[in-house]
Specification:
Blueprint (H helix, E strand, L loop, with lengths): L7 H12 L6 H26 L4 H12 L5 E3 H8 L3 H13 L3 E5 L6 E5 L1 H21 L5 H17 L8
Antiparallel strand pairs: 1-3, 2-3
Length: 170
């Protein structure tokens, strides 16, 4: 399909069409764009986090604790489930955020449970960053009308659910 403003994926599809005309490359139209979009979004969000002295994973942990509401704490296991990283990676992340003064560890009621709590400094940092983070996300979607944004969100939700991406249970 000819487009007045081709993107990089259009070129990829065209190239496959030239060398393998019978190959069904239709999935590239979506998956290729989602993949490229993910990388471009990560760059823009990363630049915003960098302006605040954070990395994306730092914001992810801080925001996970903050959006859960008072008392802004979760077990280490709950953080692992909600952020989709390994236990080892989470331990390292908690260590680094503790060193920065953004979170603190406490022992749970059972000796094996570690509670990770947002400190006042962590709460202030995540609140500061959230405003510019959401402004950056809004800017990333500025090419879409509100109706288009809602349609895209619904379509992406459908694909995610088909891949068993459901929220971690508390």
């Amino acid at each position: 399909m000819a487009r007045s403003h081709p993107d990089a994926v259009d070129r990829i599809v065209q190239q496959w069409g030239e060398v393998r005309p019978r190959l069904d490359v239709a999935p590239i139209e979506v998956v290729g764009r989602v993949s490229r979009l993910s990388r471009l979004i990560d760059r823009r969000l990363g630049a915003n986090f960098g302006e605040h002295g954070l990395q994306d994973w730092m914001y992810d942990v801080l925001a996970t604790l903050r959006r859960g509401g008072a008392p802004y704490e979760l077990t280490a296991g709950e953080l692992v489930a909600q952020t989709m990283v390994t236990t080892g990676a989470m331990t390292n992340r908690i260590d680094r955020l503790t060193d920065l003064g953004y979170v603190e560890r406490r022992q749970g009621s059972d000796r094996r449970t570690v509670i990770v709590a947002l400190t006042d400094a962590g709460r202030a940092k995540v609140d500061e960053v959230s405003t510019s983070h959401l402004a950056t996300e809004r800017d990333l979607l500025r090419a879409l009308s509100p109706k288009q944004r809602d349609q895209l969100a619904a379509l992406l939700r459908t694909v995610l659910l088909s891949l068993d991406d459901t929220p971690a249970t508390p």
